[in-house]
Automatic annotation (TrEMBL):
Residues 6-117 form the TIR domain. Signal peptide: none annotated. This is TIR domain-containing protein. InterPro entries: TIR_dom (IPR000157), Toll_tir_struct_dom_sf (IPR035897).
Length: 254
């Protein structure tokens, strides 16, 4: 669950944060990491701000003329884009140019408090709730999944039993293993890494050093609304055949 947000801001905007953002987050049972004072040295930033970033699930950026001039804020935005993809929430409270914060920030839709505070507040609450729901859904994939892969091998239609086990989820990053029982080449084990995109689509990469098996490949799986079934496609390189192999995957939660 997304339950702690780092607030990236200029101290000139403290009043807005203390009167609007923090009460709203507290009402939603969301904790905040918020520094009221300027951090004066690079060493202090490393020790204090970096700690706050690393121990937060997401970042709320208060966009203003003041914060657009802050190198610390720009560093925090750069960190969030790299380390918390999809969990940077820009909130604009006065005229400023998003590109002044980061070259990629204009791609991220911001909450506009400049014109209609009530609408902005409703939009922010909705976005926070949608991110929380997405995070809950992401954690439903942890555990063991079993099913089959279906492929055409030469002129044959082959069905291979699969076991996919997700061990760890860190933000949008996923790790685990994949075991395939191929009807021609036997059992093969793969290391699995992955990520979540758009709440229900999961991209996995897998690789193995075992001879005579698919040495590496990728899967794109869609999670059903109940969170108990995966369906999707795979593509891999077959070490035995020396060819690209594609097919379908169907998995269910154990």
């Amino acid at each position: 669950m997304l339950n702690k947000y780092f607030i990236s801001h200029s101290t000139a905007d403290n009043r807005f944060i203390e009167e609007e953002i923090i009460p709203l987050l507290r009402a939603m049972n969301i904790e905040t990491w918020y520094s009221k004072n300027d951090i004066r040295s690079a060493t202090e930033w490393e020790r204090s701000i970096k700690y706050g970033l690393e121990h937060s699930d997401g970042v709320i950026l208060i966009m203003s003329h003041n914060s657009s001039k802050s190198d610390y804020v720009k560093d925090e935005v750069s960190w969030a884009i790299d380390k918390r993809p999809g969990k940077l929430l820009p909130v604009m409270i006065s005229d400023c140019d998003p590109i002044d914060f980061h070259i990629r920030l204009p791609r991220i839709q911001y909450i506009n408090y400049k014109e209609d505070e009530r609408t902005a507040r409703i939009n922010l609450i909705g976005l926070l709730k949608s991110l929380e729901n997405a995070q809950k859904r992401l954690f439903t994939i942890k555990g063991k999944w079993t099913g089959h892969a279906f492929q055409i091998f030469g002129n044959e239609a082959l069905e291979s039993p699969l076991t996919l086990e997700v061990w760890q989820i860190d933000n949008n990053s996923i790790s685990g293993n994949l075991i395939v029982l191929h009807p021609k080449f036997g059992e093969a084990a793969f290391t699995l890494t992955g990520s979540c995109a758009f709440e229900k689509f999961f991209q996995y990469n897998y690789y193995s050093q075992q001879p005579s098996v698919i040495q590496f490949g990728a899967m794109l799986l869609e999670l059903d609304p109940l969170g108990i079934e995966f369906k999707g496609k795979f593509v891999g390189y077959g070490a035995y055949s020396g060819k690209i192999i594609t097919g379908d995957i169907h998995l269910k939660k154990n």
